[in-house]
């Protein structure tokens, strides 16, 4: 008899069947990879196990007893600890990182009632140490970037006394450095007999960790693989077709440069950056957490101003003072944390799939200024088809989409206009490999613009890019796959570039 | 190990769910409207005079100012702000109008633009504090509120402003209210449609279209929903917030013009509690039509809702001291209808 | 300022400090009352410290305590809640400070009561109403409880109804809020629409009367209605004398005069002279006809035209110069 | 065509930046405190009587109620709510206290628990609407506000409640204010420390520790900052919000007790401005010490700040009609100090 048995689990969201009689068994002390295309139902399953959602049907047995957590607190008490997918569900702005790390302790009442700065700092440091991460304990959680937030969530979960640990895309915005650390920690926990349910779209993660892979599709568990896991087979089981293979690394482009950067200095004292991106080319910048990827893109989009340097777009000088000017110059930018940088709150005007896509294009699509006619819906339907966004339609609230599908919608926003230069920061967070391939294909299809992608996952970079730079301490290092990867592996973020 | 899916129980279980949802959805969307209709019907039965046109009009007239102010509040709520100075702006606009006519002997054509200009200036001041000085909205508009409620007293040394006002320097003001100005509050179209009601209707429609059906409106809401996201998609969020506050100020001053024209003097005791009524209308607007967000139509209906209730109760000669209570009870009822009936599946 | 020649101590030296502690600190009545008090104080070369009560009894208490510890010679209390004041007033008296109360019954033999006599105000207005309309009519009554002067005027109205069974109160209404006149107008419209037979409205507070007049003109029934009120302001006079105005009479004292009387009473006490316990400033009946024939449009003109309204012989003394 | 990087200026420019930052930081943190000190100093010079102990105490006493209510508002702001009913709760507590003593002839030992219980009940009602019926905070507390401001008028048919009250049924109430109850507002410790000030201090310290230095406090702020995140990490967010509102109600009713004891009667006209003043204090609290979030210490200092200003102006015999204006000006100044001086690198 295993640790956990999920039988015939059903969950509806209105017309959508998120879970359609899904069944799953977990043994004690194993790491199980839960694979599935975007919208397959993984997070829904997780949310039910975590007590965040109530199932409409089916049974769960945990440790031999019926398991029906009424709320997250219940689940935690029973020993089921979860790291949720979206980074906006982790902590509160206004409280320190230390508080965020201790929040579950506060909630279960396992700290002293009265708190002193010192005691909090100590306990928090201990939590971090257990996961062997390094975060600025005293800074405001609200100022943390996506990656750091995710580290907080993981450290918290690892520290909790769990018998089942669920991680929903924990590495979505981590770099390989942190990923490596996470692997080590999880292996240690497994050795202690903890069971881990691990969801990720990064094959590297799964290959490094999984004893078993369970594949979901359309709300059902469709297949299962045991070590040695054949990931090609797993992936095709997951997306229902073999993965289009793509070997375009180091194609050389002769087109004229869309973007050219000379002597760009991101922060005082950083080395100058020179590079250019040719027409139709997809260039990836990779590097460790805090290395400067986002900074580079943000600077190119006029969010941060550079210390020095010159930039041209299509040969014309380009020095945007704000995003509006950048967009006017034909440059588009998708930020790394979609909740902070792209999405509107639920129920708000423009928070539908269509509204999310149309936001930057309203002026072009509705020159009269009046929002009548269904141009918006049209464009949205097009994008939904093109990127295979799984949703009930253009009017569906963005919050009703699965994480990956939300991310696809954000990308659709910037594909909708014909921009000269696409700046995509961590564009594939939580996007499944199939969709990723489709998106890249789509990006390539429009050969008249150029694309610059920032990603903290070298494998992803290799997969999507024609040319790759690594970035370290805000400076570019020439890319040669092996030593660059090792360079990243040896890169450790210090206080200086975390804050 | 794919499980075969026996689709036996699911559909019927789904059917119940749907029908239930429809009733709920109707009550939710309908909540306040239904109650409103019920009140209109009930009052007409109890007191025939209630339903006659004149009375209906005087109800609308009595809510016109609050409705306009509610619309203004809605605008600032849309950009994620909150204009606490709305009442004070209207009140000081009353004084400004009276001062302009009685001391400077302006006529209506000078007075109205002057007052509206004043309102816009106040709005821009709020906007400046919020956008440039980066003071949080509530705080900035609170400060402005105090500033204005003090400012309005100074020119007349705390006295109401009416013809023959003795100025602080002892001289006697020579002007008087321009009769055409009083018309704004006291005359009507076709003999039955009071001008304030016309103004209210115009403004409501205008701002409704502006917020719900224009690019500008969408960007306002985007700014209020997620300022960063809006800015990153190229929206001039600062200018948008500034504009929203300027508009809010302008509307408030129009409300002030109507009050001044009704009262026929610059009444020092015109005051802050206008703000609460305006906010109330704007907030009740959230519930109307189950929008759960600031919306102009809701704000106006919210104002009318309260106006009908009070007018009806007065007609039935219910003691004034029970009216607030009834107002509260009805409000709680309406809100429970709207919010209490949960959306299934969430 | 070297004080008043020939005045009893301490006024002969000057530098005497009085405190005026108000309850209602905004609005025309307070403004006028304060102006009158200041003028009289100036004439007496008294340094008058004004404390605005901000409609807050608790605040008013603390302000009296402040006045005490400022070491003033006399405190004039303008309106307020007796329960909130009696003990602090006693404190002041114990500290040797003279106290005069206006329109709030401190109920202390040592404290002269200046009164604009709300009972008198209401009585005169209602007598006029009876004179114009006889003693059988259906009336509307504008009244909100909880405001001391209104409550006193209300007592008279209740009496009046008892003694004149022909007078039926069809409806009671009224609202005190941000826009008292306008809100009252809205209510009045509802009431007058519901009770078309109302021919007389008793509105013992000018803001109410203003609202009722507005309602009447909105409904176009000004000719069928007569409004009787209390209190007066320039704006009121203009409304009353306006053509076809249904506002036919109001009864009022001149707040400035009452202010002056309050100061004089305090001064006499400080000078050690005797002062009656009740200092009633007689109100004046102002009829539409009277005002029109006198051709006045502001309180100042009224004061100039009608001496009775402009001055009071209450609490005077040879050494006290008249305020100018 | 690389633009030559002005490396020369950079470091130097950075140095300025740093030193400037320190001054700014001080002014930001200090802003209001500095102003407060300046006022105290200035007023003492201009009017020696200002600085004497008795006057200092009467300042504290006059702000005690607003400070306590500000603390209450801070609590609800902490859980991401906003208690608009705070003023009405205090006002109706005044009536409740008077009614209990005068009609039911309760003594102080019965009255105070009764009133505080009433306050808690109101808080729980708010909490119920918000947590169970899921009405947005502003709307729910607004409805409660109307409900209460009506309710408080009904028992006495809209009349103030003082000894010898004639009840609606015509009978005459036999009770009177318990002298020991009046002591709460009118007596002091060691002859110079008024009880209301002591109460204010106690509550301030208590709630300060509770919010800033306990597990419970962190959970409150977590709930306010991101309710979903807090719930997902196991916090009983609903119970927390309920508690916050209950506490808020309790504090409001204590404020009411103090007012009742000061005034010595159940005055229907109590507390018109209470809510705005409390909110003002709580919001000014954001700026104090540059916390930029609800905090108890700030709220209390905010209340004292305003109290000192008004007391000083009165002592200097500034006409009442300029005081609000000055208040506004000073507020704008203080806020510009705090927020206008940006944190470099933000
Ligand atoms: N709150 C909601 N309302 C309506 N539909 C929802 C809601 N949450 C999820 N869904 C739908 O349920 C389905 C499964 O969503 P889920 O988040 O479980 O997918 P997932 O496997 O986690 O995908 P991803 O890999 O992108 O995270 C999707 O079609 C999604 O649109
Ligand atoms: N939103 C932010 N908040 C705080 N610091 C930031 C932020 N953005 C950038 N930084 C700082 O700028 C430096 C570069 O950060 P940046 O995000 O560009 O690195 P990155 O390589 O994109 O890291 P990540 O993979 O986490 O996005 C870091 O040292 C970081 O401290
Ligand atoms: Mg998911
Ligand atoms: Mg980044």
Structure summary:
The complex is a heterotetramer, with one copy of chain A (499 residues), two copies of chain B (346 residues) and one copy of chain C (324 residues). Chain A has 499 residues and is an alpha/beta fold. Chain A contains 19 helices and 20 strands.
List keywords for this structure.
heterotetramer, A: 499 residues, alpha/beta, six-stranded mixed β-sheet, 19 helices, 20 strands, 35% helix, C: 324 residues, 12 helices, 45% helix, 19% strand, binds adenosine-5'-triphosphate, binds magnesium ion
Descriptive account of the structure:
The complex is a heterotetramer, with one copy of chain A (499 residues), two copies of chain B (346 residues) and one copy of chain C (324 residues). With 499 residues, chain A is α/β, with parallel strands linked by helices. Helix content of chain A is 35%, strand content 23%. Chain A contains 19 helices and 20 strands. In chain A, the strands form four sheets. In chain A, strands 6-7-8-3-9-10 form a six-stranded mixed β-sheet, sandwiched between helices. In chain A, strand 9 and strand 10 (220-226) form a beta hairpin. The radius of gyration of chain A is 23 Å and the shape is globular. Chain B is an all-alpha fold. Chain B has a single domain, classed as ABC transporter involved in vitamin B12 uptake, BtuC (Orthogonal Bundle). With 324 residues, chain C is α/β, with parallel strands linked by helices. In chain C, 45% of the residues lie in helices and 19% in strands. Classes of the chains: A alpha/beta (499), B mainly alpha (346), C alpha/beta (324).
